[in-house]
Write a structure and sequence with these properties.
181 residues; alpha+beta; Bacterial Protein-export protein SecB; two-stranded antiparallel ribbon; 4 helices; 6 strands; elongated
């Protein structure tokens, strides 16, 4: 194999000495838990009721993006769960989990969906594990959240407002909700 062929395979241009390496579309600079709250207002009596009946566990999700500097964004996922049995609150769990990301070269029309679909999709397994660990540590069976279709949530929220933002410096729309049955 000639040096020119090797250069073509490795992404470098032998003639001008430049390397053509693609920029990652999403670069995670850090992930962190901004807030975590877990309450069991009916303890210890609620544990007796739990042995007789399963709780209703509605879930609401709020995804938010905030422009920072130098093409960096803070993406947050906020989950609120209030489990109830009959009219008693079993537990309340609220978590806000975030990441700081940079976005590579993508068309401006795709920026908003990448920030509110792809980034939350990458963060969700960490949120899911924290929810399971927190409910387990609180004396309940671990709550394993079902996989969330962030694309569907995005489409339901923003389908009517495709022009809801113009560039990364503008405040982007920030709320998506769902309910788990």
């Amino acid at each position: 194999m000639s040096e020119a062929e090797k250069g073509a395979i490795n992404g470098s241009d032998e003639e001008d000495g430049q390397t053509d390496q693609p920029v990652a579309p999403i670069v995670f600079h850090g992930q962190f838990m901004k807030d975590l709250s877990f309450e069991i207002p009916g303890a210890p009596g609620i544990f007796d009721i739990l042995q007789k009946q399963a709780p209703d566990i509605p879930l609401s999700i709020d995804c938010h993006v905030r422009g920072l500097t130098n093409n960096r964004f803070e993406i947050t996922i906020r989950i609120h769960i209030e489990a109830t049995i009959q009219s008693e609150t079993a537990f309340i769990l609220e978590i806000t989990y975030a990441a700081v990301v940079s976005i590579g070269e993508i068309p401006p029309a795709h920026l908003h969906p990448v920030l509110l679909i792809e980034v939350p999709r990458q963060l969700f397994p960490f949120v899911r594990q924290i929810v399971a660990d927190t409910t387990s540590s609180g004396g309940f069976p671990p709550l394993m959240l079902q996989v969330i279709d962030f694309k569907d949530l995005y489409e339901r929220k923003y389908a009517a407002d495709a022009s809801g933002w113009n560039d990364a410096t503008q405040t982007l729309p920030n709320r998506t909700e769902t309910s788990s049955e």
